[in-house]
């Protein structure tokens, strides 16, 4: 039946159309640093093998379905009794195993490489940035430089950046697709990763792990700069930016969307959320929304368990802005 | 406990108001209709109290189709919301609720009951049995599933929908970040349905191991029976993990324990581990029976026995073993280190080997065959290329290091839709077109079936293929909107348009059911497809005792050789004996109501009321253990009469002689 051939044709054509039409868009195939490049190379290697599998299966499928379809002239053909073929079955067991081996070796290699400073950058002094994810913002602390930013991070080009990830609330996934893969940021835990940007440029970073109503707004900018620009930026921040206080910080951690903020000190002075014995900075009252409200529980290790902060209980004007956002006068284009 | 009536119903959203009104109208309509047609008694005696595996199967399938509709509407709403950048059709909260319920409903209340329904209808017939091993337990399984499904479905109008994703990751799903009762629905409705599933697993293992007819050795079982057996084993291995995880979740949310919380030393990733320790095997729980369906359909319509039957069996056993060893691939990005990630990359990629074996065996079953393009076969054919795409992208995702770039993106979403839709949905459609006459005594319309097929398959590809490319462009999953600058707009729009075609396919399917129930030819033989296995060795639709005389099996594809050698097709009067059958019981349904009430109270955190209702459950258990009803016997005359009514017809291979 000709319809079957159509289906093969359509299915084979769709990826072609997309591959030609959208190539320029696919950030995963345009790595801007050695870490992302390692992953892209691995993906390309796997794509070649997978394409081979697809071609073999699709052509075998097309050939068999076409050749052995029921036609008016073969109605009296009675198919033979056939129970299998040891040779054939060994072949199609062995070949996939070989393909798996071909994929495993570079995968394991890459998994180990991605834990280290990228090759060729070992002698360069890395910069450490503590990333603290909160609802629904990203906080970047530069302990060596003594500054802190919210929702953007400037980094020097060609320098390994040692990101130490943690979270003050829900679990997020820290992802700058142009520079490398992602990793989870979890409360009272620390994960780490190295990223390097080859050239100055602005890259989109985002949270890819769903964490509630404000999730879609958890994007940040990573700006890779020349060393001079970066040092200049640090000096400027130290001169002009305000100091972050503990009260302001608690305000900052509430579930809100904020723009960019810059401070001339870091919150690591009083709390490191990666420490498993650190205080918990959550307040269920701030997450109330529609529906039937259940009971919540007082926790001993909560930051509100000090007299000064009791007035935080109660109102939650911050989260309403997200709510109102939907009645607005946006136009899609 | 003070009931906060102002929070009881969800208000303020026109979509939800519309749903509330339509639910109320439907309920009134059903009650009115049943009363007007005087069908209450019929409903109770023929369906609600039934323990007949075929009727239970039909009830599973009807529920699954309804849930398919619900989950599909969720999907369409999501597609509408993301069809244009900065769209304001749904709020982010509403979108979160919808993708959560879409996932839960499609996996647990659509895919599973659809397959369990087909298992119920077909497996006892395929092994030549008169029912499952524990018929009343089977009814209880169904009613617990139904209770859980209904409890979960009322959430969006009463109390609030779960909104933490179908994975319900902690700490987000905990009280610290989700203080409304919405996620209690997840913990409790899934618990109730899960108990039912666990019982199904036990029931089918015992049925298949103990109730096979004479000569039906394990290696002569039809492939669908094999996959059902292995699936049941996975259910028994995996579901208790979920039961425990959900219980811990319930404690965390209701009583303030700290298993998965941020505060008090809880470990949120413990939930992720427990969830996926169940969740990954769950994928194979739905995929393996589907593979079984394809095996039956492909063999029948190629007029050949399954190529490499033995290696097919080893392959499913291999998949079952590996399924328990791959759960970490759902969170390579947790940072558990390269050694752990390497191990799980390898185990995950190894799954491609048995799956590849199956794929080639299906292809070579068709080789040298005579492929008849019925609707059931078309679904099985479309499965091959579509599932191959799902499979190869699965291998790509399995590579830990590469996954750092795919994880949580639409690439992943596209992948698992390419696995689950061809692998499960195509299969249940194939199974439904194939086995429909066994249930209802007529075929589904083939012409409408082909419309259904083409719209659905084309719509599916247009909906999900763009998502691969969106993911590679950096689009994260579960985001309710995106900016115009992101450049995602054209592909999202294409995907949304595809979903309309997909929905049109589903609509044709529903119309096909309606049309065929009303107009299809009832005068068909008991073996309309010239099939190969024992479910076709009896009447169509199947009489309630299945077989007047239990068939004897001498080889694989037993019925095919019975027809070829003209053996065992004739029933003599002297062979008819009384048939012992289980009695109907209202208890499973009553248990369903009690579980539902108790669960509902627990969702609203009214612990005392829930405990009181739970006393009813215990009373039911005690009552059941003193229930000595041994069933009843069908007299010889009645069997004879039933058999005469379908045997000896023109074109019928089965004969009856006195």
TrEMBL record, chain A:
Chief location bin: membrane
InterPro entries: CcO_II (IPR045187), CcO_II-like_C (IPR002429), Cupredoxin (IPR008972), CuRO_UO_II (IPR034227), Cyt_c_oxidase_su2 (IPR014222), Cyt_c_oxidase_su2_TM_dom (IPR011759), Cyt_c_oxidase_su2_TM_sf (IPR036257), Cyt_o_ubiquinol_oxidase_su2 (IPR006333)
Membrane topology: Multi-pass membrane protein
Start and end residues of each stretch annotated as Disordered: 305-333
Domain Cytochrome oxidase subunit II copper A binding: 124-236
Keyword vocabulary terms for this entry: Cell membrane, Copper, Electron transport, Membrane, Metal-binding, Oxidoreductase, Respiratory chain, Signal, Transmembrane, Transmembrane helix, Transport
Domain Cytochrome oxidase subunit II transmembrane region profile: 20-118
EC number(s) from the headed UniProt entry: 1.10.3.-
Reaction catalyzed: 2 a quinol + O2 = 2 a quinone + 2 H2O
Keyword Cytoplasm belongs to the record: no
Compartment(s) of residence: Cell membrane
Membrane-spanning residues: 46-66, 87-105
Name of a matching Pfam family: COX2_TM
NCBIfam families with a match to the protein in the record: CoxB (TIGR02866), QOXA (TIGR01432)
UniProt family annotation: Belongs to the cytochrome c oxidase subunit 2 family.
Known role: Catalyzes quinol oxidation with the concomitant reduction of oxygen to water. Subunit II transfers the electrons from a quinol to the binuclear center of the catalytic subunit I.
Designated name of the protein: Quinol oxidase subunit 2
Lineage, uppermost ranks: Bacteria, Bacillati, Bacillota, Bacilli, Bacillales
UniProtKB/TrEMBL annotation, chain B:
Gene3D superfamilies: Cytochrome c oxidase-like, subunit I domain (1.20.210.10)
Reaction it catalyzes: 2 a quinol + O2 = 2 a quinone + 2 H2O
Membrane topology: Multi-pass membrane protein
Localization terms from the record: Cell membrane
Cofactor binding note from Swiss-Prot or TrEMBL: Binds a copper B center. Heme A3.
Domain Cytochrome oxidase subunit I profile: 36-554
Residues spanning the membrane: 15-37, 58-78, 98-125, 137-158, 185-209, 229-251, 283-301, 313-332, 344-364, 376-402, 414-436, 448-471, 491-514, 589-622
InterPro entries: Cyt_c_oxase-like_su1_dom, Cyt_c_oxase-like_su1_sf, Cyt_C_Oxase_1, Cyt_c_Oxase_su1_BS, QoxB
Keyword Oxidoreductase: yes
Keyword Transcription listed: no
PROSITE patterns xref list: COX1, COX1_CUB
Name of the top EC class for this enzyme: oxidoreductase
Known EC number: 1.10.3.-
Pathway(s) the chain acts in: Energy metabolism; oxidative phosphorylation
Cofactor: Cu cation; ferriheme a
Family: Belongs to the heme-copper respiratory oxidase family.
Protein name (Swiss-Prot/TrEMBL): Quinol oxidase subunit 1
Organism: Aquibacillus albus
